[in-house]
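Q: My labmate handed me this sequence with no annotations at all. I'd like to see what the chain might look like in three dimensions before we decide whether it's worth expressing. Could you predict it?
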Amino acid sequence: MTSPIPVNFATLDLLPDGVVLVDNDGIVLYYNAREEQIARRKKKDVIGRNFFTEVAPCTRVQQFYGQFRQIVREPSGRTSFAFQFPLADGPRDVEVTLNSFQSDGKGFCLISVRDITELRSVRDQILRAERLQEVGEVAAGVAHNFNNLLGVIRGNAELLLRKLGEGHPERRKAEQILKAADDGADIVRRIRASTQRDTTAAARDRVSLNEIVRETVVFVEDYVRGAESGRSARIAVEMKLDEALPVLRANATELREVFLNLLRNAVDAIPREGRVVVETMRDEGANLVRITDSGEGMSRDVLEKLFRPLFTTKGGSGMGMGLATCYGIVRRHGGDIAVASEPGVGTVFTVRLPFEASGDPVASAPPNA
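A: Here is what I predict for the chain of 369 residues:
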């Protein structure tokens, strides 16, 4: 039989934080309206049950049961901790405080729960904006020098194409160099526009997403061979493409940049042997590109920071701009990019891009030989 509530706690329903009152055994005596919203649990379903072993929806709470047992033996014990509630509609970051007190010779504990999910989101946005400002200042100088290098690469590629006749086995590689240089020049133009606060959108055409994916996979072939020769990795890249995708109105150069970054990261994530699978598919109102690798995976802490500018897991070999750039490009196209990963299992990036409502499927060219 549970102990009676020692005072009238009805006014606690007006508080912005969740409030739970338990007795010294952890049995819930009171559960306010805000806690119902945070935990997605109804008051009638939790009253009379043990908060730590039955009500709270994650094992992290149960780990603090021992601390609770300790503080309820004190007249005014207190402890605090933070963690994530793994709810069905997405994780929520919360701060929890336990305060014990005595009434009529009986022990009770008042648990306050503060949802800080939105607060952390705002902090992340401010931090992202500050870092982007820093990046913009550096990018203006880099763009000029990078453009000069691209001029050299493009000029030599054009000379090489003139020497290689039609049908020459090495001509395709020279064409890839020229195309990559053109994409690089387009990137430089976008960097200059962004540092000059030019908000004009990049030109967009009706494009085949499958063709963009195929071109990007060709670009990454040399990177895979480099991993094979440099660190003895054996990596297979597979494509599973839906040949009836609706058209996209997009900037092909920007999307190639997104997929190239994701594919290179997938290759880097595989230490020795594994595979990378690139899939396209149609979803409700959008085309999806899913890139799955069988690599080392990422921790939750890394996932939370993944799209922040200047954040990198590659040490001195990474600039920390690849995924931040990908995120910006996808969002400018009205789409979204999501990631799921587990250490030791691998990673899945999913890029969602809306297609034209009236668009017909674009016939995709056959894979390159």
